[in-house]
Design a protein that fits this description.
binds zinc ion; Diaminopimelate Epimerase, Chain A, domain 1; 3 domains; 6-stranded antiparallel β-barrel; 9 helices; alpha+beta; 33% strand; 19 strands; single chain
């Protein structure tokens, strides 16, 4: 390659003397061209660079850099005199974040492709804030993504060199990844190698050692129709994000006691509590509007209720509080990861267990009791409402 831009070989060089070739106003910004090929325009899925352009005591911000058929265009917020000599300062915060996001994308995709050879890269976007990549050919599960994330971190720790070489596109090795059409478009290709993990034909800016990435975090995974869309971030931005999330959880650890490792279980419980609350509202509404569920079977009153959100103890307390005078049976059922049932009799010829222990066993539960109270439980019931209805039907038969 004749004109190797400095950002390919020396990405840390951030200041250049430049000549303003032209400056034109376009809508609410300016298009400035410079003679030197020192700043990278958007392309190949990577955003354009930002920076400052200074001529004498005048300075304009480079908001973005693009390219057209005539070359590189700096999009700025002000104009500078054509023909003037000036100074260009690359926004290294933006570039360095892009380098980290981009190089980690190389590693991530290379590892994914090692796991699943049928995967191809679709849409790709890298800027200074984050990166997104579309993996075509599979709907990957979270475990695979997390495993890959951990492997990327391992390569970061290994601090392998990231190098560029220029090869004849006709003789390019099959192991080198390249976007479709790239080998036909150019005679020579720049191949970027990261350790012995990845070699890709790429025009982007990369870190020079994998250790420079520092940290890598997947932020979002979406799958649909044999596609997996992954959003990620690298470097200090990733570390800060993880740190702030950890602190959010840590803050609550003291007001709502739990162990940090139990966060997943706490969230599961919270989701269950929200669902239960909704069902409990529905139940309360039904009780207040239609009254309790009482059937008269001969001269026996059979009362039964489905009570989301109740645990074994609150069921027991409730069953004791329901006033009964006549011959009656009360059955209370609480759904949950462990569904609970309690049956209480009053003035009945037989013990409580006679009316329910068989159905409980029949439907896969366990339980016991003496005299007027029977309690039972069921583990991991898929359709608790159906189980409740089945129990009621069986108890009804036994009463009759
Ligand atoms: Zn690249």
């Amino acid at each position: 390659m004749n004109d190797v831009p400095p950002y390919w070989t020396d990405p840390d060089k951030s200041e250049f003397d430049v000549s303003i070739e032209s400056a034109k106003r376009l809508d609410d910004c300016y298009h400035i061209r410079i003679k030197e090929n020192v700043i990278r325009p958007a392309g190949g899925g990577q955003a354009g660079e930002k920076g400052l352009l200074i001529v004498g005591d005048q300075s304009v911000s480079i908001i973005d850099t693009i390219s057209d058929s005539a070359g590189v265009v700096l999009i700025t917020d002000g104009s500078l005199a054509e023909g003037a000599r000036g100074h260009l300062e690359i926004d290294m915060d933006w570039r360095s974040s892009m380098m980290k996001n981009h190089t980690s994308e190389h590693l991530f995709v290379a590892i994914i492709k090692k796991k699943n050879k049928d995967i191809n890269v679709g849409e790709l976007w890298i800027d200074g804030k984050h990166g997104t990549v579309e993996l075509l050919g599979a709907e990957l599960d979270l475990d695979t993504i997390f495993e890959t994330e951990a492997e990327v971190m391992k390569i970061i720790e290994e601090d392998s060199p990231v190098t560029s070489s220029f090869v004849d596109s006709k003789s390019i090795d099959q192991s080198v990844r390249s976007r479709e059409g790239l080998t036909e478009k150019y005679d020579q290709l720049r191949v970027v190698s990261a350790g012995d993990i990845d070699a890709s034909a790429c025009s982007g800016i990369h870190v020079t050692r994998t250790g420079d990435i520092g940290f890598f975090k997947v932020l979002e995974v979406k799958t649909s129709e044999k596609k997996t869309h992954v959003e990620f971030v690298a470097g200090m931005k990733a570390a800060r994000l993880v740190s702030s999330l950890y602190n959010e959880a840590l803050r609550r650890k003291y007001s709502y006691p739990y162990e940090m490792e139990q966060l997943g279980a706490v969230l599961d419980r919270a989701k269950l509590a929200v669902d239960d609350k909704q069902k409990l509202i529905e139940k309360t509404t039904q009780l207040l509007s239609s009254g309790s569920t009482v059937e008269q079977i001969a001269d026996i009153s059979f009362r039964h209720e489905y009570l989301p959100g109740y645990d074994a103890n609150s069921l027991k307390i409730l069953s004791n509080q329901i006033a009964v005078t006549e011959s009656s049976i009360i059955l209370l059922f609480a759904p949950g990861s462990k569904s609970q049932v309690i049956l209480r009799t009053n003035g009945m010829p037989q013990d409580a267990s006679e009316y329910i222990s068989k159905p409980v066993l029949q439907f896969g539960g366990r339980g016991g009791g003496k005299g007027e109270v029977f309690t039972g439980g069921f583990v991991d019931v898929e359709e608790p409402m159906k189980l409740y209805e089945n129990l009621v039907t069986e108890v009804r038969k036994l009463i009759a």
